[in-house]
Specification:
This is NACHT domain. The chain is α/β, with parallel strands linked by helices. 62% of the residues lie in helices and 6% in strands. The chain folds into three domains: 4-230, no CATH class; 250-454, Rossmann fold (3-Layer(aba) Sandwich); 533-624, Arc Repressor Mutant, subunit A. The chain has a five-stranded parallel β-sheet with strand order 2-3-4-1-5, with helices on both faces.
Length: 624
Amino acid sequence: MSLKARVSLDAQRVIKESFQDLERTLSINDRVSLDGTTLDDVREAIVQVQDGLKARGVYRNMRRLMPLLTGLQYYSQAIEVLCNGTPYLPWVWAPIKLVLNIASEYVEAFEKIIKAYSRIAEPLARFEMFDRAFAGNKDVQQTLAVFYSDILSFHKEAYQFVRRSGWRLLFLTSWGRFQRKFDGIIEDLKAHEDLVDKTTNAVNITEAREMWDKLKLWREESQTRLAKDEAERTVAQYRAVVGWLNFDDSNQHKVFDTIASEAQKSPGTCSWILQQRQVQAWLRCNSEMTFVVLQGGPGTGKSVLASQIVNFLRSSEQSLVISHFCTYSYEESLDYEQILRSILIQLIRPNTDLVAHVYDTLVLKKRVPTIQVLEGLLRDVFGAGSSKSEYIHLVLDGLDECHKSAQPRIVKILERLVSAAFSSGSTICKVLLFSRAAQVGPKKGNSKRTICLSDEKNSMTQSIEQYAALRLAELRPRLAQMRIDDADMKRLEAQIASKADGMFLWARLVLEHLENNMFFRREEILRVTDALPQELGAFYRQILANSTTRFSELSIQRARSILGWIAFAERPLRKAEFRSALAFSSGNPDVDELPPPYLFDMCKPLVEERSDSTFAFIHVSVKE
């Protein structure tokens, strides 16, 4: 029987998949460094590391690893038949050299890693007495392949632990998780050590196969249980961190959903921003364009554009996406400290090690999360890096809505986070900031880039024209009664887009004016853009004047009360809350009836009811 015929394909598959899994984990340079590494190379490297530690006055007994190398030598002879013609075999020992060289820079971690590696020697000792005649037994090969898989899993965990740039920072808080993984691998190795003996005994071949099936099931259950325990531990720590920070992101979700829904009502009107040259460069996962400021006047749709960029990034799943939307509707969203908390929570949420680190730093040590503590934590976790390249896209909208004193602090911390990530050597953080203010743009010699919506007139005009076409299509039955044909519709769309001068909000107000007013003649429709103010403030005043012309003094007071509650409430009020607030605004505690809901309709279009039944101005500029 040929050697090829005696090789278990299932065993080879396990070995190949284990090799490829570790290969994907290693950096290109580290993969190259492992090629051709012999056991003697590893022994020599261990001696060199020991000499280096001794020279630093931190001598460590490296002879503890010799039984491991001996065991690997005997094991390699047993598995050689499964690795013929492949690069798989040297990877059983080669990563040890790499891991020890890196870990030797931090003695406390080095000691723990040596102890972990030395534990592999015990289950490998069995192979010193292994009869190589059994190497062609397919049942034995299955067990040998599991050994290979476990050893490479051990290397992978050790490599990931020491290769991330911030591993010293995370060592104390993340070692426990790695220790539990190491323990599981060692336990699996010991279980399969007994299986080797039973499989090589022809008398117990049936018993060995039964044991193999049980071990396979136990292995799967053990891995599932470990993953579940780790997930539950991380969730508990994450919740504790959120509680310690007293952070609630539900309002951010509401803000984002409200803004994103505006784009969904007018599909395609925002897609141009994803084709904009500088935005495309920022979106790419590379080190170019790490800090971009997108500037635009009030009502130009910056927030909607921001939401579309965030949605695009999240759907691509190429990077970690962090977003924060500053809005007057939720006062806490404008607070500098809350912005720091928002960024921190989103950064650590998908990362078990970072959750553990922040949990230990804040919760276990009972540290008050002051601004200084939060800034330091953010710099640390952004600089922690990873064993592989990672990208973070951070989008912050509405900087101009924050207090003027907070704006430069926000810009400064974002710049520092970009620098901290870059210094890690493995993480790139790219910031996109939306604002009106020109002062956040690049200074001389600054790496920030600026995109001005005023320079994107063609795209903005086409987008507004498309928006107008969608809204006018809804009014077509009414407009047709005044002999407005397709040519008139096109003309009106172009007029609105041209007069809007990049302001989506102005176009929206014009279209709502068309929807909510009475027109007799075709000419009135076609001249509507000439009859309305082009400046937003004047437009608001005209809308307000038209709405209140026939109001009594009492009605005007009530309208002011509605607008005042919207402008100065700490958060948007729901309809029931709003009606109660209006009822008690007079100061009379004996209220037996709430104001009717139709009152809110009389404040349109400056006031709108959102999908969550809260009320807000159509734009922050109304409040201003």
